[in-house]
Amino acid sequence: MSSFAAMVRFENVGMRYGRGPEVLRDISLSLEPGSFHFLTGPSGAGKTTLLRLIYLAERPSRGLISLFGKDLSGLARRELTPLRRRIGIVFQDFRLIPHLSAFDNVALPLRVAGTPESKLRGNVRELLEWVGLADKLEANPPTLSGGEQQRIAIARAVIASPSLLIADEPTGNVDDAMALRLLHLFEQMNKLGTTLVIATHNAVLAARSGRPVLHLENGELMRGPVSARQTPRPPSAKADQTKGHAGQNKEPAVS
Ligand SMILES: Nc1ncnc2c1ncn2[C@@H]1O[C@H](COP(=O)(O)OP(=O)(O)O)[C@@H](O)[C@H]1O
Ligand SMILES: [Mg+2]
Q1: pTM of the predicted model, to two decimals?
Q2: CA distances in angstroms from 195 to 30, 62, 100, 174, 240, listed in the order given
Q3: How far does the centroid of ligand 2 lie from the alpha carbon of residue 121, in Å?
Q4: What stretch of H or E contains 48?
Q5: What is the pLDDT of residues 109-147, one digit of tens each?
Q6: Which numbered atom of ligand 1 lies nearest the CA of 169?
Q7: What domains appear along the chain, each with residue ranges and CATH number?
Q8: Helix, strand, coil % (nearest 5) of the chain?
Q9: Rounded Cα distance, 244 and 248, in Å
Q10: Which residue from 16, 38, 48, 61 has its CB within 8 A of the most atoms of ligand 1, so it is best to mutate?
Q11: Among 26, 75, 77, 192, which is least packed, fewest CB within 10 Å?
Q12: Residues with CB under 6 A from ligand 1
């Protein structure tokens, strides 16, 4: 085991829904602070389930999970709330608030955190402009395309500079050029200290990133060749640095 606490650690984790078969089997992994992994595998392999376990939407059927160095099995539900606040999530089905504008959806995490309006306005606008939605700030999600909604969901997940960013197929609804632009945004987040796990069935995008890949097949983690091994990269930044608000500083001023 490494000398510093892993951001996410699974030990022989199994997961079943109800009385169904195990959809994840014997998953062991350790994600270091500052790491950036892709999670690949065919539809039904268990990617979303694995992410749901990480972002605390599910408890495992067996095995141990620790997050931010804390063993989750010992924690009560209410003790999970502060941990959840440190996680940014891009849901596969977006989960935007339909009656709020794009701007208000993205501003929400900052407002919840008590950021003053004067401080958040410029950052929210800048980020939405950066993901190509400059002319959609006042639009409500149901009036937008899937790709546009997906970019709002990404902006909302990253705006408050979470310690951990979990994204479930975040480029599934955008074209290749936008997918690369979003990959660049994720890289910037990582440079500023955010740990990332991104599920995708776009093996090309994962390969292009050069990041380590966790590959699921039928509920099992494959330890394949070099690219698929969980080689921890040296932390590019201390997890503590994420306390600053990247979304309010450098990001998305990307040249
Ligand atoms: N809420 C659920 N109840 C029962 N089975 C589920 C549920 N969610 C997912 N599954 C099953 O778990 C397996 C893995 O699904 P999922 O994690 O969504 O895979 P992926 O994201 O890789 O497509 C699939 O066989 C799926 O049918
Ligand atoms: Mg999925």
Answers
A1: 0.86
A2: 12, 25, 29, 23, 11
A3: 33
A4: helix 47-54
A5: 999 999 999 999 999 999 999 999 999 999 999 999 999
A6: 21
A7: 33-59+83-248 (3.40.50.300)
A8: 40, 20, 40
A9: 8
A10: 48
A11: 77
A12: 17, 20, 23, 41, 43-49
